[in-house]
């Protein structure tokens, strides 16, 4: 028995399938971009860690957290500027504390896993500002190993810093 092809129905089905596939690809691309941003932000925080730490350490004694009294209109332009600096310094202190806690947890996890060298490579690269070659020489390992270890540590650190946004989930949403 010959099946009758309804061209309108065929076109409708093709359009639906095409739209579903396009949405699926768009969502996958969106997830990849989000993962890339989290990874990028973690790298950026670690690259800036030493400068942020110095910046926050210099002004801790003089920093008094501004309480929100709701009367910013009474402040002069200079007072608003100073308040803004204090708030920025407070945010920096909070972020540094958050990074320090995450680094401490990561170090503990690597020690328990028996892979302390991976954390040490991260520490050497970002905190001690050693080159990949220096790390390679220190551990007497392959040329790509320090980069691979550091990338793995950045992935794990991303989860500790950013929570679920730091996870590399490949499930369909």
**What assembly state would you assign to the polypeptide chains in this entry?**
single chain
Number of domains: 1
Approximate helicity band: over 70%
Provide the β-strand percentage band: under 5%
Query: What is the radius of gyration computed over CA atoms, rounded to a whole number of angstroms?
Result: 25 Å
Number of strands: 0
Report the structural category: mainly alpha
Distance between the termini: 41 Å
Average pLDDT: 81
Poorly predicted runs of 5 or more residues: 64-69, 169-173
Shape summary = flat
Count of helical stretches: 5
Main beta-sheet annotation:
none
Topology pattern, helix = H, strand = E: HHHHH
């Amino acid at each position: 028995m010959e099946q009758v092809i309804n061209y309108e129905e065929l076109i409708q089905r093709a359009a639906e399938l095409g739209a579903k596939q396009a949405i699926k690809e768009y969502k996958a691309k969106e997830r990849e971009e989000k993962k890339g941003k989290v990874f990028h932000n973690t790298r950026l925080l670690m690259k800036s860690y030493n400068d942020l730490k110095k910046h926050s350490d210099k002004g801790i004694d003089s920093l008094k957290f501004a309480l929100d009294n709701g009367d910013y209109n009474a402040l002069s332009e200079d007072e608003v500027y100073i308040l803004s600096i204090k708030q920025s310094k407070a945010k920096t202190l909070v972020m540094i504390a958050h990074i320090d806690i995450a680094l401490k947890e990561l170090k503990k996890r690597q020690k328990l896993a028996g892979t302390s060298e991976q954390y040490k490579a991260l520490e050497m690269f970002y905190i001690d500002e050693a080159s990949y070659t220096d790390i390679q020489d220190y551990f007497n390992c392959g040329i790509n190993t320090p980069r691979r270890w550091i990338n793995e540590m950045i992935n794990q650190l991303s989860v500790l810093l950013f929570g679920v946004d730091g996870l590399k989930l490949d499930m369909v949403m």
